[in-house]
Amino acid sequence: MVVSNANNLTSTPRPARRRLYVVAAFGGVLVACAAVVLFINLSRFDEPLDPALAALETSRPAFAPDNAYPAALEFLAADARNPHVAEIAGDIRKNFESLKCYARRYLDCAELLIAEVAGIDALQPRAAVLFERYDALVRHTHFVDTPERDAETRFPRYNAIRDVARLRLAISYRSESTPEFLIEAEEDLAFWKTVLREGDSLGTKMVALAHLQDTLDFLSTLLRERELHETEVTFLEQLVSPFSREESNISEAFLAEARTAVWSEIPPVAADASWLTKLLMQRNATLNQLYHEEIVLMQQRARVGANEFYEQGAHEPLRRELRLVPRTLYNFGGKLALSRSRWDAHEFPARVHDQNGRISLVLLQAEIERTPGADVAAVVRASKHRNPYTSEAMEYDPGAGVISFKCQHTAFHPPEPPDLCAVAVAPLGDKPVVRKYPVT
């Protein structure tokens, strides 16, 4: 016998029917809420861009004459005379293991590369084109990034440029006199300070800092390993000047990051978000929140000196919270993407101050070099070259022969190995180094 659905329903016990009604009602509420959330996040309800961001849509950085940026962008470009330039750069990276050594994390990168360049002879004829291109690159007087960058715009092949720059210094150190080597280092420092000062994007400025640290590493090795005349030490001190206010203030680079986001179809902060997150995202509202909660704040942090930066706690990570309140439902996808962002904006000003502190360390090393036989600890205590954050004397480890201060760049989630704000003032020794470098 067939029993109708109506009979089944009427035969269902009342408590069970009540539960079915509650579940159905709850499901209906959820569907209604989902419909409301989808409706309020339709693009037609997006808010207008903040006027400061709207102005970035039409702004263009001035493209300077004698600009090195196009040459950097085409550094590995093939031409009729050199069709295999990129392959040569790859061979360089393959043949010199110590090019994987980052001077921000190790004290002996320059020494290792100087020892390795004895094997350059076989590669030298093929690599000549890259050395020629680098020599031409550093002779430019300006460096301004492309004025039309979005999230998809490619950067120059900075790793290859960096490899050639380091090899150039290592070869000069090994084969030329101290004055000749110092002239090579002077060219490098002048060029990469120009990049730091004039480069538009945060990425470009961080590359400049890395190159400056590479050169400092060679100069520290020179002070440690060679007997220098007083005039040579004086010349070195003139080269290794602390950053100017214009060089250390990277606040405009955060505005450049905002411009990149405005020119991108999808805000970079949501580039890897799920389709559902993007569906619930209002583009303009996301950009406005990014601008007010991160860009403006980071501009303020980037304008202050190292001491004030540290005292204000500006080296600490930004707090990103997703509060579950009704207004959160509007632009829920954008708020979710921002709360999950891995963009550690607080690290960038700290990295500038760290690097400026490393310059002070090399100047302190030169001061120690000027007073052979003196009590190093006493020189360190009395020196004007001090911890950039606390204004206290640099730390000195007599056992290791190292002067240092605590880095703040990655203080809250240090990589392995961590950053070092240190230089060795005593020989590092002749023990062979076996090291597996991290992939970066």
Description:
- By secondary structure, this protein is mainly alpha-helical.
- The chain folds into 2 domains: 17-46; 49-440, no CATH class.
- Helices cover 55% and strands 2% of the residues.
- It contains 19 helices and 3 strands.
- It has helices at 5-11, 14-40, 51-58, 69-73, 85-95, 109-116, 124-138, 158-175, 178-198, 202-225, 230-239, 245-248, 251-263, 275-279, 283-303, 306-311, 332-339, 347-370, 376-382, and strands spanning 395-397, 402-404, 422-424.
- A 3-stranded antiparallel beta sheet has the order 1-2-3.
- A hairpin with a 4-residue loop joins strand 1 (395-397) and strand 2.
- The mean pLDDT is 86.
How would the blueprint of this fold be written?
Elements: H1 5-11, H2 14-40, H3 51-58, H4 69-73, H5 85-95, H6 109-116, H7 124-138, H8 158-175, H9 178-198, H10 202-225, H11 230-239, H12 245-248, H13 251-263, H14 275-279, H15 283-303, H16 306-311, H17 332-339, H18 347-370, H19 376-382, E1 395-397, E2 402-404, E3 422-424
Helix pairs in contact: 3-13, 5-7, 6-8, 8-9, 8-10, 9-10, 9-11, 10-18, 11-18, 13-15
